[in-house]
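Dear all,

This email documents one entry for the complex benchmark we are building for the journal club exercise. For each entry we list the sequence lines for every component of the assembly. Then comes the predicted three-dimensional structure of the complex as a token string, followed by one or two observations. Please use this as the template for your own entries, and keep the labels exactly as they appear.
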Amino acid sequence: MIEIEALHHSIGKAPILNGVDLVIPEGGMTALIGPNGAGKSTLLSLVARLRKIQSGHIRVAGHAVGQVSDQDLARVLAVMPQETRVSARLRVADLVSFGRYPWHRGRPGKADHAIVDRALERFSLDPLRERFLDEISGGQKQRAFAALAYAQDTPYLLLDEPLNNLDIAAARDLMRLMRELADEEGRTIVIVLHDINYAAAFADRLVVMKDGRIAAQGTPGDVITDTMIGEVFGTQAGVRMVDGRPVVIV
Amino acid sequence: MRLFGLGLLALMAICSLFLGVADVAPGDVFRDAEARALIWESRLPRTLAAMLAGAGLAITGQIMQLLARNRFVEPMTAGAGQSAALGILVITLLVPGAPIWAKMVASSGAALVSSLGLMALIRPLPPTQPLLVPLVALVYGGVIGAVVTFVAYQGDMMQFLGVWLTGELSGVLRGRYELLWIAAIASAATFLIADRLTLLSLGEDTARTLGVNVGRITAAAIVAVSVVTALVVVTLGAIPFVGLVVPNLVVRMAGDNLRRALPLTALAGALIVLVADMLGRWIRAPYEVPVATTISVIGALIFLVLIRRGAARV
Amino acid sequence: MSGRLAILAAVLVLSALAYMVLKAQGPWSFLLPYRATKLAALILVGVALSVATVMFQTVTANRILTPSLMGFDALYVLVLTLLVHSLGASGYAQIGAAWLFAGNLAAMSVLGLVLFAGLMRLAGGDMVRLVLCGIVLGLLIRALTEFLQRMIDPSEFQMVQSLSFARFTQIDGTLLALSFVAIAVALVLAWRLRHRMDVLALGDAAATGLGEPPARLQRQALILICVLVAAATALVGPLASGGFGPSSFFGLIVTAFAHIVTPSHRHAVLIPSAALIGAVILVGGQLVMERLLGFQTPLTVVIELIGGAVFLILLIKRRAA
């Protein structure tokens, strides 16, 4: 369970989060959606302690973020950041094997290698394992970073706009994989998305943010309505139900 | 603006005449023949040299920025200054008793070659990365600087190297700075092609359709830049950053129209070098801090501010 | 990789041997200790600057900026100038060498951290801006140092000159021992950071996610870098060759070579590889310059020449890639 309490955050003088209270239950996939500048990514990066908390509290599985040691938290929570630029010239397999770092701190054992192999296979990276990161496509790189987070083998997995720059096939593949992780391995997945339809199609729960606050939350069917789209996103787009899931007509 | 600047420059120039180790009060000029001689032989040439060099360097900077289409370059640190020193060094080694005009020609030629080399080097750089140009230019200058040091070591001329690489005005006397008047003429000559250079800054194709002979104008501009740079190095030694800082400040006020900007650039350049020299004379009197050192400190600081600001704008 | 490291080590041993015995003029009893001291200094300096550069490039996430380029060695002279000035030339001479050395290292580490923080703010995450700001910062430090040296008393100035412009020709025994201790300690600590540095190279966010937040590690690495550069500079003076161009590209050549000879992201490989290559370049280079060619020019000038060219090639190649 991720518990967020009275979270305020500003960058420079601009307030980004204005009192966020949120509980994300264990298991399943929760998607954070909202218009640009709503504070989704900031919220995610605070949970992932990529930014320092200015005021408020976050607890992940009982660990208070900011107080628990970085190393311990890295065994509870993995994050795939939005910015994935690596200065070192790395092979795909090397990158993914860093997922084991929180567990072995530089001295990998047999079990670690096995998990890395599994991650490479699961994310269909086996044929690419000896390729350098600057030699593969953006989608493949994105997948490699997802595999890195997967190999970290944590109960919580956070992804910040993982679909950026992905074509439809790559985006669907990645979302399906995440769905599998939630269903088969019981991991708790929190994902920031800007495409509502992907969120509605794959997530169990949606958290809608606007102006640094939680505007709505619940199942996709409950949350995605004409009124919500109008109020939160400020545009009139119709919502239809397709196979029991809401779809926003653009 | 221009009148104010001229007035300020005149005031500073007068102050400069009466600043130095030997105390000379303005009144002494009328009473004391020795004081008159001091001013005539040393202080006046020094003041003029500072102003001429400053004006010339500022103009070369502006022109080079226009040719490179980049605000962060100037010839003195981008290889032309170092090459000018290399030219003098080589001619002194080959022809020990070479007359001053030969040194002048050699250093101008070397500066010219290196400026052309730099242009060829930065031309293919992508315009989306404006900071790549100064980076390449600085390192290019550094490499040529290393060649200079190498030659100087091999030729056992290290003790002279400082003279050319660190610009200083303490040695300026009547009869030793007059070459700078040629630099002044070369700088002034750029006024004649100022309009065509401005057109060039709109892009070569645009300039060509407007009837500008791009090749010839570019060549003329590079020759002027090289000659001015070389003459300053020959007479005073290298003075960095003037060509970088001054045009950047002037452009904020006068815009990119060279005909309007150049006089202001010259004025500001003269002022900055003169003030830096006076500061160097006054701050640790009776010792002197070379003008190049003072300007390096100020210039590098302003350079950092410019990079930061330029990046914020892009 | 270990095979390649072994070859590098062998090359170093061979060049060290050649350095010791080639072109002997004069009695061995004099020559051997004299040359051994110089050799030790060359190796120490090569290793220290190379390891410092490897760490610096990981901390700044770029492959071309080096501590010397951004004026860390000039910073040493700046600190020295300030110390001599505040203590006076005679006061400076009275304090024990060890204390002075420690004071220099401490002051330089503090200034180095401040400078680095400033550089990162100026760079704002852009690689080209980082390198350019680093170089201009280096020019500023050099200019400031020169300015201060003109401000102090001429006798103090002479003192600073004699302290900071020693070359490989004259190495003080005490200083050699002090530098050795400082460099050895810093190397051990750097070695212990090797796995964490690997993680740091993944970028700030990824490193944080893996439980290795960059800020503290960067600080630790920077202090080690400052100590390594300061100790090396204390031994042989700044590698700057005069003029107002960028200073030495020694570290740049070394890391570029290290990435070619031992292509790996692991600091467990990069650190020893760069250390060996750095020592080989200095020992071998000095051997060629001094013994074979009989050149007057200090090695650093040639390194600057070649290094500048390598730098330009790296820049222009990176653009093409």
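Observations: The mean pLDDT of chain C is 83. Chain C has one domain: 2-320.
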